[in-house]
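Kindly inspect both lines:
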Amino acid sequence: MTVKDNFSSQADYYARYRPHYPQELYEFLYSQVSSFNTAWDCATGNGQVAVELANRFKLVHASDISQQQLEKAPKRNNIHYFMAPSEKTQLSAGSADLITVAQALHWFDPGKFYREVQRVIHSKGILAYWGYQLLTINTQIDLCVRNFHDVVLGEYWDDERKILLEGYNRINFPLVDKKAARFYYKIEWTLSEMEGYLNSWSAVQKYIKLNNESPLPVLVSKLADMWPGKKTVTFPIFLTLGKVH
């Protein structure tokens, strides 16, 4: 499986506009962890999860295949950022109390990744992975965004996108005491901020690369009259965690 880097080219948009995750998600995560010595945030991107984990863990390893993404990540004394694919790292065996993957598992080779998890995880460690599905605002705007996602960008999405939209249902790691939970992240955005977020989509960047123009101006123009001021944007989040077998 070829390692794909779909986000280096839009690292600025990713760092500025990608949604974060609610504190309730982290509190649920921490309630399942028995030790807070070392965590590994795999495919850390702009480091948003790593920074949160650094508030609780003595050491956080945060890996990504994109140097551009890592350069945008906030620096902390107890965060070790490094470039590496998810399937093969130089992390010490049996060292991680918690391994997290946020909005990235669909890009991995699941079999190879899980073997690396088994190598790196502590005997009582937890693997947690989550993602968010298509945002919602209101019925009228949602129809426009859905059409943009499914029709305008349909052929520009990588096949892995389907794995994410299915809530990772086709990925079945043999976790012990597996738990699933749902959360919602809400944020107030102007239309300009929404446009910034959409620019971080890999399919938008692929469209621009192949057509030498952005598909966004047409959508933004259509939404302009529907979006005075700020709107509440909701991201539905699904999470799965468990002990590694």
Observations:
- The beta strands are 38-42, 59-64, 79-83, 96-102, 121-132, 176-190, 230-243.
